[in-house]
Amino acid sequence: MKKTLAFAGAGSDHHYHDMPKADVPRFAKQALQNRQTQLAYNAAQIGCRDDHCPLQAGMAIPLTLGSRVLGVLTLYFKENWQLTPIEIQTGEGLGEILATQIVLGEKERQAGLLRDAELKSLQAQISPHFFFNSINTIIAISRFDSEKARFLLRELSTFFRSNLLGANQSKIPLKQEEAHVKAYLNLEQTRFPDRYNVEFYSSVDDQVLVPPFAIQVLVENAIHHAFGNRKTGNIINIWITKSGKYLEIRVADNGEGIDQAVIGKLGKEKIASEHGSGTAMQNLNARLKGLYGDSAKMQIVTGKTGTSISLLIPYAQTRQDLNTEEASI
Fold it and tell me: What pTM does this model have?
């Protein structure tokens, strides 16, 4: 460990960004050396070099990548009674999630260029605000519902694990994409209870192949842009059906509709709009064309009662099926 990357909260006058290794609290160094979580229940155990430090308890969690320890996450408390078993469990869960993100970054670095540039663009749009908002929600819930907090930590892990797996695959089973979407929705619906009613309907085998993030992009687009400031009564329906030789993915909402001035550009180019740039839809459409050529279609129907976006792609349950379908179209 060479320096502190970031610090926020009490004690920031002497715990700070770029703080040299010599000034890092002793228990954080021990976590790195021992590769185990270190708990401190008083200032002496923390080992801060400042005698007037207000931090009285904390935990230091090593972040590992295989056999390597890449860093340490430290969480502090101003009172030692605040370091409860729930806080420890939450902190270690957060450490696992951050370590997963490190693995994702390392795999991207080693790969250099992903086989599909559009997929990389889609991944880059995962908002850091979503990550930190989810973590704050989990921490808050852990204070009164530890089981719900554990469930949400697992969902957050599922969400980021799906991004990691999707980075190396151009097509994945519907079951895997559905788990990704539902993990995202569970986190969003916990943050905004009763704001969204989302239903998932599928009449196809859960092993049918779909591009990673295809459903995720459409659902997230609806949540962020369909409803304006409306707090309740927001409905999103997801249908997965077979239509002849095609798989149809349709996401429909009862939102405000899309401005007719931009509807013809959506999915084809960036849009100058106060509601978003349309980059996610553009990247998704480009990715579909790259994977399936003219066999893929994106259809958008919108009005004052909502918007429906459909993706049509060749139906395939295995890569051999996909090759057969594409050859016959």
Answer: 0.58
